[in-house]
Design a protein that fits this description.
CATH class: Alpha Beta
Number of helices: 5
Distance between the termini: 40 Å
Strand content: 25-35%
Order of helices and strands: EHHEEHEEHEHEE
Length: 201
C-alpha cells in the first residue's frame, strides 16, 4: 500500500516527492489589511493548493504561516508533483489578479521540489497527538529549494527532473547553479523560471 494512502498509524520510511509552496509578497501586505481579509485570502490560497495537490494524487501534510508542505508517492510521483506545481502557478495568477484589484495585494507563489526517502507517521503525544508528520532529508532539501526559488518560480532537484525524463514528461526547465549544502555534495538544480523577474522576491 502507498505510504500516503495508509492511516499513518504505523510509522514507515518511504520514497516520496516533497513539494513546498509559499506566497511571496502576501505576508508584508497582510500587516495593512483587516484580519478577516487576511484569513479569507489565505483560505483561498490554501484551497487552491490543496485542490491541485489532491487532483494529482498527493496530500497536504502541513501548513505553517503562508507555507504548505505536500507529498506524493507511487508510480509517476515526480510527474504528478510537478503537474500540481504548474497547476498552482497557473491558477494563482488569476487569484492574484483579483487580490490586486480588490485589495492592492501583489503576490506570487514560489515552490521547491525534491525526492528521497522520509519517515511518515503520526505524532503520539502532547497537543500534536494524531498529527501527520513527514521527516527526513528530502523534506529539508525541498525547503531549501523553496528558498532558492524567486517569486513566481519553481525549483526542483535533478532527481525530480531526471524522473520526469523517464516518464517522458516534458517541461521547459533550465539548469541552475547547484545548491551548496555544508558537509555534503552539491545538489544539481533545475528550474521553471519566469521570462522577467518580479520586483519582489
Amino acid at each position: 500500500m502507498s505510504a500516503l494512502k495508509s492511516d499513518f498509524s504505523v510509522p514507515v520510511r518511504a520514497p516520496l516527492v516533497i513539494l513546498f509552496v509559499e506566497t511571496r509578497g502576501f505576508t508584508r501586505i497582510s500587516e495593512m489589511l483587516e484580519p478577516a481579509v487576511v484569513i479569507a485570502r489565505l483560505s483561498e490560497f490554501f484551497a487552491l493548493v490543496t485542490e491541485a495537490v489532491e487532483r494529482n494524487e498527493g496530500i497536504v501534510v502541513d501548513i505553517l504561516n503562508d507555507n504548505l508542505i505536500a507529498a506524493f508517492d507511487g508510480e509517476g510521483d515526480s510527474m504528478r508533483a510537478v503537474q500540481a506545481a504548474q497547476d498552482i502557478q497557473r491558477k494563482f495568477t488569476a487569484l492574484e489578479e483579483s487580490w490586486s484589484l480588490e485589495y492592492g495585494i501583489r503576490a506570487a507563489t514560489s515552490m521547491g521540489l525534491h525526492s528521497g526517502t522520509a519517515v511518515v507517521g503520526l505524532a503520539s503525544g502532547g497537543k500534536s497527538a494524531g498529527q501527520r508528520h513527514i521527516v527526513g532529508d528530502a523534506v529539508s532539501v525541498a525547503e531549501r529549494l523553496l528558498h532558492r526559488a524567486r517569486a513566481g518560480e519553481i525549483v526542483m532537484s535533478k532527481t525530480v527532473y531526471d524522473a520526469l525524463s523517464l516518464s517522458q514528461f516534458e517541461v521547459e526547465a533550465e539548469e541552475l547553479p547547484p545548491l551548496e549544502v555544508p558537509r555534503r555534495e552539491s545538489i544539481p538544480l533545475w528550474g521553471l523560471p519566469l521570462d522577467t523577474r518580479l520586483d519582489f522576491t
